[in-house]
Amino acid sequence: MFAFDKSESFGLDKAAGEECPNLKTDNTCKIFEERVERGFPGCVSYTCFGAGQRVTQEVFGGASWRDEPALKARMGAALSVLRRIHEQLVLLKAARQLPLTPEQCAQVQTFEATLCSNDTWSEETLSRFPIDRVASDISNWMKQLRGLVS
What we know:
This protein has 150 residues and is an all-alpha fold. The protein has helices at 42-45, 51-59, 72-95, 102-115, 123-128, 131-142.
């Protein structure tokens, strides 16, 4: 449940932790078919990379913030970290498609090992995971790959 500001991508302001007013009780979108026309093209490109499902099923054992409103902030905090972990894994997977040197391949493996350091994530391990530092390290490292992209 991320924040977004009213802009060309989103038709309204939404604070972090607040559910989207277009979210139905079955967790589908009320305006899905006409989201671009209704001022929400940012929703087309947004993805949690499967992190939402993992937070619900793995971290919270199938619990729902809809049934237990007290979980909303906790689930949101877990999602904000796990989504970024998944996002970094997607970037590294894309990097693997480039003609990497053996050293660069080894670095990808090191980053992946860091991001997958837990077989099963918990609230505690997610809250302690240094996602800002790891994402920054990956971003800085990936800058050297620019010459490999045409």
